[in-house]
Amino acid sequence: MLQFNELGLSDQALQAVARLGYEAPTPIQEQAIPLALEGRDLIAAAKTGTGKTAAFSLPSLDRLGHAKGGQGPLMLVVTPTRELAQQIGEVCESIATSTHHRILTVVGGLSYGPQINRLKRGVDVLIATPGRLVDLMEQKAARLADVEVLVLDEADRMLDMGFWPAMKKIVGATPASRQTLLFSATIDRSVQNSVGTLLSDPAVVEIAHKGETADTVEQFIIRTPQTVKPALLKAVLAEKGAERVIVFARTRSRADATCRRLKRAGYAAEAIHSDRSQNQRRRALDNFAAGKTGVIVATDVLARGIDVEEVDYVVNYDLPTQPEDYVHRIGRTGRAGAAGFAVSFVSPETEDALRDIEKLIKRTIPEMELPSFDAKAAAEEAASKSQRADARRDPDIRQAVKEQAARERKKAKARGKAQSAEDESGRNARKRRSKKKAGTQGDQPARQRPSRKQAAQPTAKKPRQAGSADMRPGRAHRASLARERGKRR
Question: Which residues, including other chains, have CB under 8 Å from residue 91's CB and lie 6 or more apart?
Fold first, then answer.
């Protein structure tokens, strides 16, 4: 095996190699770097996790000039996802520390202003997703007339029908004299014919044949009904671990729903898909890399080229619609020689997709035994939940529930009125008792009763009339004694 210093790289590039921590070139780097340094067009296919980014960025930046103020880009890298663009940008920035190139990454989900200002000042290397690059071209902010090197990373995806309209605009805006490099984990030899004038006498480096998967990744399937998948996923996480796991779902809504269920079950999970902002996606990946998030639930936006270290295993909650995406998905684990495994949930309606995958990878995927999972109990629970959900959706039952609720509200209203009437009756009775009590305390009208001031004054003594009896205490007794004494005389 050759060493990096034997591939034709300059001393500056070799300094970058040391900074990136590379010790020996991988097979794709060993074969692609000399060809790229020669200026050849190139089609390169290699397994995921084998250093394809460095295989095109090291030789390209090593031979690339520097743009003048307001000029550029001189090198354009187009890739399908924001995450992959950011990852390529980080590698190029590290190399540019030695080569002194200006690197700019433009992706959707971020403000246009800073990106446009950077383009006005001039850049040497532009890394972009197709949608954002076309937007900048239409705003006259991105000019591609100076491009000397065009790189299509994940080229099979860049050239499929979904991206082809944007790619036609992008490629058409670059000079015909450019060098073109196509890199991917899976590329058919038919690509050379399908792209027509895109390539000029390209060299082909095929380290991985179509459908070839990494030897370090064990693959399994579990057959299950669709309704049992939520319980099955929790069982897999409980038995195999819930740290550094990527779960792939087919749609954005299913990714969100799966993530919510995992959070309710107590797992540290986050979702990544095209509806999430770039900051949300970046934060989720950073949390995952730091160990704050144990499970990432993603669509195929995360399947290609994302280099997250030490992913323990991958779960295909849904099988992909394209069998090639299966290769990319399971390539997120078992990277750089590390061991990993992938388990795919196969429902009856996706048996055809499984056969297509097994045909592509040329092997039969064995079934995984999960002793802790009671499939029968999970199916019964799922059926019960489904029945309750169906009942809630049934129009007759929904109408009956509404009518019952209306009756309950009517009863509650009647009880409220009766209670109000009872309370009013009690208040009236208390008022009547209070008035009656006040009447017994004095028969005179209020105006004839003495005031409080008058009552407080002492009562004046009235003169006693002649012949009237003195009724004061003791006086009657003394008067009687005086009369007796007068008779005796």
Answer: 20, 53, 54, 57
What confidence tier does 128 reach under pLDDT thresholds 50, 70, 90? very high
The string over 264-294, giving b where at least 16 C-beta atoms fall within 10 Å of a residue's C-beta and e elsewhere, is eeebebbbbbeebeeeebbbbbeebeeeebb
| Residue boundaries of the structural domains of the chain | 4-206, 217-373
Fold agreement between 4-206 and 217-373: yes
Which string of DSSP letters, residue by residue, matches 60-114?
HHHH---PPTT---SEEEE-S-HHHHHHHHHHHHHHHHHH---EEEE-TTS-HHH
Q: Give residue-wise pLDDT tens across range 441-474.
A: 555 554 555 555 555 555 555 555 555 555 555 6
What phi and psi values does residue 154 have, to the nearest 5 degrees?
55, 55
Peptide bond into 371 cis (omega under 30): no
Q: Where does residue 482 rank: exposed (0-12), middle (13-18), buried (19+ CB within 10 A)?
A: exposed
Query: Pairing state of beta strands 217-223 and 340-346?
Result: parallel
Superfamily of structural domain 4-206: P-loop containing nucleotide triphosphate hydrolases (3.40.50.300)
**pLDDT tens profile 380-392:** 888 887 777 666 6
Contact indicator for 315, 330 with CB cutoff of 8 Å: no
Q: At a CB cut-off of 8 Å and minimum separation 6, what does 114 contact?
A: none
Is the CATH number of domain 217-373 3.40.50.300?
yes
Q: What is the pLDDT of residues 222-265, one digit of tens each?
A: 999 998 999 999 999 999 999 999 999 999 999 999 999 999 99
Query: Which are the contacts of 191, defined by CB distance < 8 A and separation ≥ 6?
Result: 43, 155, 156, 159, 182
Task: Indicate the pTM of the whole model.
Answer: 0.62
Closest CA to 175 of 198, 142, 195: 198
